[in-house]
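Q: Structure for this?
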Amino acid sequence: DAKTTQPTSMDCAEGRAANLPCNHSTISGNEYVYWYRQIHSQGPQYIIHGLKNNETNEMASLIITEDRKSSTLILPHATLRDTAVYYCIVRERNNNFNKFYFGSGTKLNVKP
Amino acid sequence: GAVVSQHPSRVICKSGTSVKIECRSLDFQATTMFWYRQFPKKSLMLMATSNEGSKATYEQGVEKDKFLINHASLTLSTLTVTSAHPEDSSFYICSAAGTRIGYNEQFFGPGTRLTVL
């Protein structure tokens, strides 16, 4: 089962920063936080992941609280093409591989 | 990022027929592949995990005789929906996992839209 909770939807003005929160209060010490997004009728796209330090790449920044119970994905300058459903996922460990259980995600609407 | 393809992208079939969906990792070796299904306006639901050369592991509630998974090589996994019915109509997405730079990622295919009439 998914171990994350996210707001159902958020709006953001084009050109502004989009801050998407995620709660994962039951995360274990060796579990990573991953963020993916899904544009309508496509497969999910990897954005970023982290363990406990803040991370930044060409797409976004990931801020993880010190207690690791929540995180925020930041899109610094949102564009219309960033409109998508954003999923925060805690990667669970098992004997075979690290499965992803998707929660309901946040629908980000970027508006002109 | 790595590339994962799916074929076909869209399929329409009659009730009672079987449909095979292919998932290929194009530029890396995928030791593990995952299959998901997604209903309209819903999230992805993990169906099964398949490791190359071994039997797939199915999530609770997923019928293994209904959804046959074969992972015969490090670049190909197939999902066969047997005796499809209208309630099997869904968006099926695969992902492939490999190891690079010390951590594991999943790369997703573009999905296959199945419509059963």
